[in-house]
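Entry 14. Ran structure prediction on the chain below.
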Amino acid sequence: MQNISIDRRAILAWLGAGVSVPVLAACGGEEARAQQNFLITLSDAQWRQRLTAQEFRVLREAGTERPFSSPLDDESRRGTFVCAGCNNALYSSRHKFDSGTGWPSFWRAETGRAVGYSTDRLLGYSRQEVHCADCGGHLGHVFNDGPRPTGKRHCINGVAMNFRAA
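Output, structure tokens:
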């Protein structure tokens, strides 16, 4: 039988390191978006007047709606998905697909300057965040498991958009 001595300080040091790594990795998740100038800039009070509470939480505080809660996930008519904050044309129905994730998904954004990207590290690892190029509102994230031709899945909060039928 081996006599293993457990050093309390070593255990505490390992626990501290294990907790601090994700916290430190999450630092700076908003740096790219915070440094940009957008065409539409409003104060938090002005955004709160313009948006519903849920829209504000998602668009201005980078929240996430519950999966399968948005009617836009099932939207199949021809048209354009626009930013709920500023009406910027973001995605065409031609690029929408059913990812089965519970959020509206697109394999690409509208051409031009529809969306912008930044790095989100809030979960302790890097993800590509998508935001409205005109107002900076948080839309969702881009993943590399989408269909051809791009292989991308823009996983977008439905509450961050409105739909304009063609």
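The radius of gyration is 20 Å. Will compare against last week's run tomorrow.
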